[in-house]
Amino acid sequence: MNFFHGYDIEVYSLQQIINNEFKLDQIKHPLPLFKDYLKRGYYPFGVENEIDLRLGQIIVQTLETDIPQYANLNVGTSRKIKRLLKIIAESVPFKPNFTKIAEIINVSRNSLDDYFLYMEHAGLIGQLRNETNGIRGLGKIEKVYLDNTNIIYNLVGNRSNIGNIRETFFFNQMRVNNEVISSKTADFVIDNYTFEIGGSNKQQKQIEKEGKSFVVKDDIEFGYLNIIPLWAFGLNY
């Protein structure tokens, strides 16, 4: 907000956000700015007119040059990683079957784990794991997301799935300061709080048996009780 629009926005803790204690005194209607952020606001060069071209070039360079040089991979392997990213981008949501994927791109199961890790470290994807007893980085991978919504729009364009965009935004923003894991009944768990992500008509049924649970809704400007607007989770850092 500050970089793109000149607004001085306060940072809020997760507790403040789920208590609906955040304020945007300078902005009456945050949704148009939020929708713009989803398409071009993640990277500083989003202010440029040719963001799609530049982001596309960065993705290609990362796949064809940066990762291969870092991991000492050959050209054939870099092509397989590009194909893997394409599979992730076109699958909504992407719940990895590693054995099947390894067969599709003709690599070993162990190599596939490395490819996912390379892309995660390069800022192309984020891997959502299950309960890990507090040990970050271990555990079964339940879902794989593109790292941020700008990459989704760049790779998929108008075919972007709105549900995937919402979940990607939440995961991208919250994993900066929090350990985010998968939920058996909803979408995400953070510090024993359960979060279900959806549109403005999303109901409570899926999480009604969870103690500390919240419905995170897109397309609403303000929250109430355990209903929190999706855009508010962008105020955590």
TrEMBL record:
Pfam families: DUF4143. Residues 64-180 form the DUF4143 domain. This is DUF4143 domain-containing protein. PANTHER family: AAA+ ATPASE DOMAIN-CONTAINING PROTEIN, ATPASE.
